[in-house]
Structures
1.
Amino acid sequence: MSDEISFTLGAPTKTLNELRHMHHRVYAQHRAALALEVSALTVGRRPVVPFERARVVIERHSVGAPDEDGLIGGTKPLLDVLQTFHTKTRPSGLGIIASDAPGCLTLEVRAVKAARGAGKTVVTITEME
C-alpha cells in the first residue's frame, strides 16, 4: 500500500521567468514563505521517513497558461521544499520526498485554466513502491 499526501497552495506557482528575474534575497524569502505554507498544510501528515520514490503531480491553476518550460521550471522552489530537510542546498526542506533525481521522482506538471482570482496550486505526492 502506498501513502499519499495532497494539499492546495493559495496561489499558482511562479513561472521560470518570474523566478529568474527575482533578486536572490527575494527568491530566498519566496522559498521560505512557501516552506511555511506547505508545512502548515501538511502538519501531522508528513512521513517519518521521506518517500524514497515518489510521484508528484502539480496542477497550476491560473488565468493564463505559461509555456511548458516556464511551467515546469517554476516548480523548483516547491520541489526544494518537499525534499530532505535542512541541507545546504535545501535549507527549507520538509523531508516529504528524498530527492528529485530521475530515479526517485516521477514529476507531472499541468496547467489548468482558472477564473480570475481563483489561482491556486494543487499538489499530490504518492509514494511509489
2.
Amino acid sequence: MDAAKVVGERPPPAGGIDFDLPGQDIRLAATRWPGNGTPVVLLHGLASQRRFWNLTVPLLAGLPVLALDQRGHGGSDRPDDGYTVEDVAGDLAPALDAIGWSRAVLVGHSWGAAVAATFAAQHPERALALVCLDGGFMSPPASFDRAAARERLQPPRLAMPPDELERMLRDHTPTHWTDEVAAAVLPIFAVGDDGLARARLPFETHMKVVDGLLDYDAPATLAAVRCPSWVVACGPAGGEQDDWAQAKSAALDRLSDVLADGRVMRWGGAVHDVPLQWPALVAGLVRAAVDGVQTARS
C-alpha cells in the first residue's frame, strides 16, 4: 500500500528524524533521535511498526535512539522470503554500520525480543545489553501441533473504513486511548484504493514471520547471549493463571539456568503491549540497562 495513505501517520516525537537504512539487500524505514552516550535500538513486535515506541521514546530523551520498521513491516521493504528470526536479526548489522554504531543496547518487544536476542547471540561484540519485553524467552514445546499453532496465530483480515477501525481499536485497546496511543497504533494500517483500511503487513508475510517464530529456539539463543540481559514477562496481577500465563511463568523459572548474566522480572497487571500501557516503566528499565553498561565501563 502507498505509504502516503498510512492511517494516523504523524511526524515522530520531538527530535526524531525519519530516514532509510540498509538491511541485508533490503531497505529499512527508520527513525533516529540524536543524543549522547550509549545507543539504544528499539525493535517492535509482529505486525507492528516503529511508531509503536512513540510513548517510550520521549522518556529516553538525551540518549541516541534508533527505531526500525523490521523487514516486511511498516515502510520497510517486503521481500518474498527471509523471515526466519535469524534472517531478520541479520538486518541489524548493516543498519548499525550505516549510522556508525559499533555497539548498542538492544530492546525488543514480543517477536522483536526474539530478534534482539538472536542478534545479541550472533554478535556478542556488538550487544551491550539486551532487554526483552514479554517475548524472546519462550519456544514451542517439543510436542506442539504446528498446524494448530499456525491457525491460532493467524491475524484477522480486517477491511473497514478508517473511522470504524479507530473506534474498534479504541474499544479493544487495554489502555487509555489518547492521541499519543492512536499515533502509535494506527500506522499498523493503511487505506487502499477502495477506501478501506487493512493491515500493512500482508497476511502471507505475517504467516512467514509466524513460521520463523515457531522455529525459534529460545533456550539455545539465550544461552549464547553474553551481555547483561533484562527479561520481562507481563501477565495477570495475581490469582489463577491461564495455560499461557503458566507456560510463560515456567519459561521464566528456567532462565536462571540459561542466562549468563540475567535479570528476570514479572510485571503483574501489565498487558502484552506494555510500552503503550506503562511507557515510563519501560523507559526506566531501558535506562537501568544503559546505566549498567555505563557503570561497567567506568
